Amino acid sequence: MFIMGLEILYQIKNQESPMWSFAIHDGHHIDEDFLSYISLSDKERLREEDPFTAKIADLPVNQFIVETSRFQLDLNRDLENAVYLHPDQAWGLNVFRANLPSNYLLELYKQHQSIYYTIERHLSTTIKKFGFFIILDIHSYNAKREGAEQEINKVKNPQINLGTYYNHDKWRDLIDEFRSAFNKFKLNDETIDVRENVKFKGGNLAQHIINQYGELGCVLSIEFRKDFMDEWSGEPYMDKIAAINQLLKNVLQSMNSYLQKIQV
Predict the structure, then answer these.
(1) Does 123 map to a domain?
(2) In a designed cystine with 76, which of 27, 154, 203, 207 is the match (CB 3.0 to 4.6 A)?
(3) Distance (Å, rounded) from C-alpha 48 to C-alpha 243?
(4) How many Cβ atoms are within 10 Å of 46's Cβ, its own excluded?
């Protein structure tokens, strides 16, 4: 039986495109019954979520946007770690003030599996239509872990971390094409620093999709450094968010001719 108040909210927007944009950590919503178990403040949760990535992912392609917080269910973790029961699963944070009822956990785990199945079903449709798929799995990351006034170490923290590690070798040319496309543009009047697998290599959802369909599609896990917001206060810089969104639109536009040549 479904437990009211534990539904994971998400949107799927379909386009006639082989491409998808995902924003699976954008959400901040937690259902009221579940919230009573959470020990963290809104600001503490927001800091480890990926706010505004849905705006960045608002591209002229298929979209999968999650509106529920990763602190209720993290779809980028495997089933065992999808609910943050221990601090080592959540950046050292004690997420819950009391143990979750076992039926809550079972329901969340069921939804994790159900949503993965839904994604697989949509990707199968994309494959049938176009023969392949490409996913832009959009995230963000904190570069000021020690405090709001910390100076960002730009050597260790690229503007854009491109997680490509788990993709099949057959997609190497596409990955190179995508990465080099950023060299045609600037972000906030600066040359864009894009590097692969420096901070992150790709999460469980990317790995799962590649394990299922890796010969037929590529997952690019794109982590933007949180230059587009104050990562401690949560204040967004809307002009920078819009600039990143436009950058991705420009990159996709520049890759149109390449994408038309893909044969699987």
Answers:
(1) yes
(2) 203
(3) 22
(4) 19
Sign of the alpha-carbon dihedral angle for 90, 120, 218, 64: negative
Q: How many CB atoms sit inside 10 A of residue 60's CB?
A: 13
Residue 204 maps to a domain: yes
Which of these, 196, 229, 208, 232, lies nearest to 76 by C-alpha position?
208
Q: What is the pTM of this model?
A: 0.95
User: Which element (helix H / strand E) includes 209?
Assistant: helix 204-213
Q: What is the domain range of residue 149?
A: 10-259
Number of compact structural domains in the chain: 1
pLDDT per position as a tens digit, 227-256:
999 999 999 999 999 999 999 999 999 998
DSSP-assigned beta bridge partners for residue 161: 195, 223
**Start-to-end CA span in the chain (Å):** 42
**In-domain check, residue 15:** yes
Taking the C-alpha atoms of residue 81 and residue 6, their distance in angstroms, rounded to an integer, is 17
CATH code, domain carrying 166: 3.40.630.40
Q: What is the DSSP string of 70-116?
A: TTT--TTS-GGGSS--SGGGTTT---BSSPPPHHHHHHHHHHHHHHH
Q: For residue 68, give both structure tokens.
A: 């529920």
pLDDT tens, 172-209? 999 999 999 999 999 988 899 999 999 999 999 999 99
Q: Using CA atoms, how far apart are residues 49 and 197, in angstroms rounded to an integer? A: 20
Task: Name residue 24's amino acid.
Answer: I
